[in-house]
Amino acid sequence: MILKHVPMRSLGKSDFAELANYITDAQSKEHRLGEVRLTNCHAATVGDAITEVLATQHTNTRATGDKTYHLLVSFPPGENPPAAVLQQVEERVCAALGYSEHQRISAVHNDTDHLHIHIAINKIHPVRNTMHEPFQAYRTMADIAVKLEKEFGLQQVNHSSKRTLAEGRAGDMEHHAGVESLVGWIRRECLDEITNAQTWQELHQVMRENGLELRSRANGFVIEASDGTMVKASTVARDLSRPSLEARLGPFEASPERQAQTTAKRQYRKDPIRLRVNTVELYAKYRADQQSLTTARGQALERARHRKNRLIEAAKRSHRLRRATIKVVGEGRTTKKLLYAQASKALRSEIQAINKQFQQERAALYAEHSRRTWVDWLKKEAHHGNTEALAALRAREKAGLKGNTIRGEGQAKPGHAPAVDNITKKGTIIFRAGMSAVRDDGDRLQVSREATREGLQEALRLAMQRYGNRITVNGTVEFKAQMIRAAVDSQLPITFTDPALESRRQALLNKENTHERTERPEHRGRTGRGAGGPGQWPLADQHATGAAAVARAGDGRPAAGRGDRADAGIHAANVHRKPDVGRLGRKPPPQSQHRLRALSELGVVRIAGGSEVLLPRDVPRHVEQQGTQPDHALRRAISRPGTGVGQTPPGVAAADKYIAEREAKRLKGFDIPKHSRYTAGDGALTFQGTRTIEGQALALLKRGDEVMVMPIDQATARRLTRIAVGDAVSITAKGSIKTSKGRSR
């Protein structure tokens, strides 16, 4: 675990609101933002908490320093502690720094190779209104990190840093930007030559040959490159400090040939760090893109501005035509006045919408054409499908995914992939697989802790397409069991390299195939002519199948028509498992008992004896809460009272009624977004409130510019009252609403 204070270089740029908005912004990524917590704040939403913190900071008018403390808690690659541990780590670290009573906003980020927590802390105490600055915070953070690592069993990291602040900044530049720093270049290229110089003349000659110059500045020495970049000599090596050099070479002597032009063998340039792959062409393209950035952005902005002006002119032209029509066909002074007012309001609204759209386009253009570092440019190119850029990212430093991983025996090859959510600076691709995240570092795949069954199956499918049919699974016993189950359910032609896993997969697969063969009915002759011939299912089972199909469909329409009823029964038979019926030929199974002879008894469940007890999978779903049913349902199971087939569920009917009402108002010209019934699909969802129609609760979820209406129960409606409008939500595989952000009061 690494604890780091991220200071603001310029005091005037310090802004708690900007920092909080950054750490809580999902940036259109499904798996970037984890849990968001508000601590020591009376507000319930992030926006209100920011306002509360800013008000607290404004109460202190004497403090002249930075009133915001940005703390970063990072974990090694592959380490993913549970939410409870993350919460304890945050609280203990803040308490050690003296911020236990201070207001703070924290957010967990999952979009990099390192799980990390951003914590924005208000230095101003909410009660005393005094500012607290931790003394030697780096020592405190190192001590508490060691203690927490031992207490929670986390991976231990070396917390005793031997680098100076300048060395740390140079290392950060090389790591994050991917270009060489002057400190690193001197150490790699000419440090040995500099330290081996025996006189000041030899030292200055070595400096000139490498395009450098040693100068005296204040009480020390600085090394300046040909492009003007300077660094303290003692930062490069302690042997180059002024006391060390003067003790070895005598009093300082300036270069006698300081003004002479000497051809250097090599000189420092901010080139990319040398990688295992050739990036000459990529870097040339990067330099060309950066040089033409301003021109391309200006041209794109001019096109967007021209498009905005054309839309505004078209709106004004339409407004003039509307006023002319009102002038001709209007009746009465008052009527014309009202119509003119409506026309003017419509014009203002349309112009505001056009300007808002232009502002969004302009922000997107500035983000697209902003200056990027070398590594960020590689990320953008890799996200657009540039395989060379992706290879360059992976050549910097292997992510080395750990934990629950999947890998294949073959070489990686391009193929079908789910939607890409993000690409890290180490070349790890984060895919969206339903509600799960799958990471690919080029050698193996890693599945997120909250992976669903669909996510595991998608990971297996992706591994098979990328690496071949021989799959290696590493991780916990529970994860291996889940992968075996996913392989059996997906029926993928794969083979596990672990003999134990492969034998277990084969056993489950054979068991599944055996059940399907024994339960598959033999269709001989015509079907659908009664409930007694070979290959027929009891009529009550047909009713149960139809009711269950309607319940699963959720839209009030039967899942199978009259002609498809036999197929629906076959599908239900494949799902239900046949109980232990004893020796073959002794007596028929429960599905074949109680035929036409006991037709009047089919409406109830009769437990005749221990040998005839029905298992839960054999009981129709409507038995526990059955209503009054006639006992003369001999042939067709069509729509009729008591069966529930063909009737619209109350939730769906209420949703349709609300949608029809809103759509009718929208067609009349009201400023109402399009409403429709909820359907699963891609795109983030935001909560827009709840409505009650005829006693049925409805949830409003916004996806893009469309509002989705979803029926919910009363318990869910009560839970949603604690969610603010505009918060991000998601729909689980079971159809329940889950908040994407957590909070703590």
UniProtKB/TrEMBL annotation:
Record domain MobA/VirD2-like nuclease: where: 22-154
Tagged with keyword DNA repair: no
Signal peptide start-end: none
TraI-like middle domain ranges (all copies): 167-254
Amino acid composition bias (Basic and acidic residues), ranges on this chain: 512-525
Organism this protein belongs to: Bordetella pertussis
Residues of the TraI-like C-terminal domain: 654-738
Region (Disordered): 509-591
Keywords: Plasmid
Protein name: TraI
UniProt KW DNA damage keyword: no
Extent of Low complexity compositional bias: 544-561
Domain called Large polyvalent protein-associated: residue spans: 421-508
